[in-house]
Amino acid sequence: MTTNTITDITWRGMVVFGDSVAQGCDDPGPDGAWIGWAERLAGRLELPPGHVLNVAGRGAKLADVVRDQLPVVRHLRPRLVMLNCGMNDALHGFEQPAFADGLAEIFGWARETGATAIAAAVPVAPLMDRSIMSEFRKRRTLQRVQDINEELSRGARAFGATFLGNDAMPEVTDPALWSSDGIHLNSAGHAYVAKVADHFARRAFMTEPPARRDRLGQR
């Protein structure tokens, strides 16, 4: 169901931004290709083939989403925009002002197109409890996870988007939902995220989205 290029500006599907989790990593289908929560969500929403544009990239930080992924879809007017990103920022470092600016770019574009936008929180992955991570790095990463989630929540509120916090996904920390690497969801985890997101995403396809406002017109 996932496609790489859509040129029809009348397209009204779902756009997915993010990292390897958004790509569907470690959720293999019968043909060996990743399925992932995004495609599972599309199935729950009964979206027709070709109505998902997943531009997520492995290892992506939010800056990569803005620089590499957003330009691919700027010409479109999706019904639903999903953002699943932040773990790589937590692991490798981020600056809050730049992160906030990136969210404003993404959420601002989504609002301008009339799309429903949903951002998922960064969960505390099982990797955090593994001995290979020093206590210092663990504390620093956990603090970054908290800071990133606060920024995601703040940005979502500012632009009328939905923040899907970890309180909405209480089972996401269950190790049974994660792959052996402790940082990617397994098939059960992707299915769980899709089930939770369904409740929030379904409304995007219940009504016709508003017409896009001209960039120079009234906001």
Can you describe what's shown?
- This protein has 219 residues and is an alpha/beta fold.
- It has a single domain, classed as Rossmann fold.
- The chain is built from seven helices and six strands.
- Helix 2 packs across helix 7, helix 3 packs parallel to helix 5 and helix 5 packs parallel to helix 6.
- The termini are far apart.
Question: Which key features would you list for this structure?
Answer:
219 residues, alpha/beta, Rossmann fold, 6-stranded parallel β-sheet, 7 helices, 6 strands, 40% helix, disordered C terminus
List the helices and strands and how they pair.
Blueprint lengths: L1 E2 L10 E5 L1 H4 L12 H9 L7 E3 L7 H12 L6 E5 L2 H6 L3 H18 L2 E5 L14 H24 L3 E3 L22 H15 L18
Helix pairs in contact: 2-7, 3-5, 5-6
**Element order, helices and strands?**
EEHHEHEHHEHEH
Mean pLDDT: 89
Radius of gyration: 17 Å
Query: Major sheet: order of its strands?
Result: 1-3-2-4-5-6
Number of strands: 6
CATH topology: Rossmann fold
Helix content: 40-55%
Number of helices: 7
Output the CATH homologous superfamily.
SGNH hydrolase
So what's the overall shape?
A: globular
- Structural class determined from secondary elements: alpha/beta
